[in-house]
Design goal:
Length: about 575
């Protein structure tokens, strides 16, 4: 399965730096606050050690009380700075994430449809939905906790050094274990979480395909194989998650062993130094407390580093989308001089597969309406996609008004594609229509609805959370968008196929009204559309085998006549 690109670790780090750079002041304040939080806690073990020494020396109670108040003040400062630091980290993270989200969505909207189709819509949806959610959760929870824990570990080792360098060396006894195990975990967990995110994207794509094609699956009695496919992708996602969890478990076991080694080293060294009268009991106590307080931050990192790694894998997937190259702009943009269409020597194959189109030549005069018909698999949809610029041809040229498609400044202004798969955005009818022309007035929107005979009000709420439009109404909405976009050339790819018999006549009138005055290529599912076209082109196995007016082709008794007879027979039967 082809998937969208995933950024390398180096590129992900560089992209993160680019995103953080505009927020240097906030970053500096965040770092200072987090260091202050760790430093506040750093004074607690020495103060507890002084209490031990004061009790052994039978010092005055006032001294002990004063030290206890110092400990309380340090704990309050720690709590305050930690809370502020977490807030600043979350704020910084959300600002960075907002910028990243905008970049990803902007690039996702610019990704060529051919790339999305090759990757599968599930992968793209998982990235702009699930992956952003993972990063957002990591920014709010994992990142602040991991940063504070790292600072605690570093400053605690500094505190051990200040007490006695020999105690610091003892505290470093488990360092080789920490380093080796951490390097292993970072090296192993990154690919594991990337594989988990990828498997979840494939599972999402499988579910979307199964649900979206449920009617076809039932019609061809393919429920079993389809469920098996979904189950296979779901099991693969579960297996990927279990492999990541197993790596986390082994990491935890190794870290617990390292903690045991460190505690034994600190206690043994402290005992020897106290017996040699090199340090006080209070200093040995402070050293033990310093090391014991490493348990919590290391344990927290163990728990949260897992989430941080998952967020890192999600970030690499988002940066991969954000870095996708934009479609190359023409070096010298040109504007078509008329609305005629010319396809010369068009060949097309999907991803190195067998050719679907074989040297197709087709000319459509300005204002002419051509219907393309043929059996399923003849290449009709591919021809429409090539004409609309969705798929660049493997060979051959597409011209609009004697200008190659690749040299037109804004293809979408001149060529529009309407397919049978129509998306209704959540919002009002007016919001949906303004996707085609944001500056359209309410009067223009209403006029477009009247043109396609759509019985809707601009204030009607549709899409998720609103009225669920029928296939007929959704297609009328798409045709109204076509009217507003006002392209010179329109391509309709079986735009009435999903309406059913009841809505077919309504949509055929709507399509005719929307195409009035435009050059049009209609991929006809219903041959009544072909009968009213200026010319019919018959496609068979990727080649044009007939072309001419409906009546002439019927009279010729060729391929189109056979198609028409098969179409008309059920309608003429009693």
């Amino acid at each position: 399965m082809n998937v969208l690109p995933i950024a390398t670790l180096a590129r992900t780090r560089a992209a993160l730096g680019e995103l953080v750079r505009p927020h240097r002041a906030l970053l500096t304040g965040t770092v200072v606050t987090l260091v202050a939080a760790s430093a506040a806690m750093l004074v607690v073990p020495p103060l507890l050690g002084r209490i031990v020494d004061a009790v052994i020396a039978r010092g005055p109670a006032a001294l002990v009380d004063g030290i206890a108040l110092g400990i309380l003040a340090a704990l309050v400062a720690r709590a305050a700075f930690s809370a502020l630091g977490s807030l600043l980290v979350a704020r910084l993270g959300e600002q960075v994430l907002a910028t990243l989200r905008e970049r990803v969505v902007r690039r996702a909207l610019d990704v060529p449809l051919a790339d999305v189709e090759r990757a599968g819509t599930g992968d793209l949806l998982q990235r702009v939905g699930g992956d952003i959610a993972v990063i957002s959760e990591g920014v709010r929870r994992a990142v602040p906790t991991v940063v504070i824990s790292l600072l605690d570990v570093g400053l605690t080792l500094v505190g051990l050094t200040v007490l006695d360098w020999r105690l610091a060396l003892a505290g470093l006894a488990p360092l080789p274990i920490w380093v080796l195990v951490s390097r292993w975990y970072v090296r192993v967990s990154g690919p594991l979480y990337a594989a988990e995110r990828r498997a979840e994207g494939e599972r999402t794509q499988s579910l979307l395909a199964g649900v979206g094609g449920a009617a076809t699956v039932r019609a061809y009695r393919r429920r079993g194989p389809q469920l098996a496919r979904i189950e296979g992708h779901s099991r693969a996602a579960v297996d990927a998650a279990m492999r990541a969890s197993d790596a986390e478990r082994r990491f935890g076991l190794a870290m617990n062993g390292a903690e045991l080694v460190g505690v034994l080293a600190i206690l043994g060294t402290g005992f020897l130094l106290v017996r040699a009268d090199a340090i006080t009991v209070g200093a040995a106590t402070a050293a033990a407390l310093y090391f014991l307080r490493l348990f919590d931050p290391i344990g927290i990192m163990l728990y949260q580093l897992d989430e941080a790694q998952s967020a890192g894998a999600a970030l690499a997937r988002l940066v991969g989308v954000a870095d996708m190259p934009a479609a190359p702009a023409p070096e010298e943009p040109r504007t078509p001089r008329h609305a005629g269409v010319r396809l010369a020597g068009i060949r097309h194959a999907y991803d190195g597969g067998p050719e679907v189109l074989h040297g197709v030549d087709l000319e459509v005069a300005p204002g002419e309406r051509v219907a393309v018909v043929g059996a399923s698999g003849a290449g009709k949809t591919t021809l429409g996609a090539v004409l609309a610029g969705v798929h660049p041809p493997t060979d051959g040229t597409v011209e609009i008004g004697d200008v190659p498609l690749a040299e037109i400044a804004d293809v979408r202004r001149h060529v529009a594609l309407v397919t049978q798969e129509v998306h209704v955005f959540a919002g009002t009818v007016a919001d949906n229509l303004r996707m085609a022309r944001p500056d359209a007035t309410d009067a223009e929107l209403a006029a477009a609805l009247r043109t396609v005979e759509a019985p809707m009000r601009l204030t009607d709420v549709v899409g998720d959370g609103g009225d669920e439009l029928s296939a007929t109404r959704a297609q009328q909405l798409a045709l109204a968008r076509l009217v507003l976009a006002d392209p010179a050339v329109a391509v309709l790819d079986e735009a009435t196929a999903e309406a059913g018999s009841a809505g077919a006549r309504t949509l055929e009138r709507a399509a005719a009204a929307a195409l009035a005055g435009r050059t049009a290529v209609v991929i006809a599912h219903r041959l009544t559309q072909a009968a009213t076209a200026d010319r019919v082109v018959v496609l068979d196995k990727g080649r044009i085998v007939e072309s001419g007016p409906h009546d002439d082709l019927v009279a010729a008794g060729g391929s189109y006549a056979a198609l028409w007879a098969a179409w008309a027979a059920p309608r003429n039967s009693p």
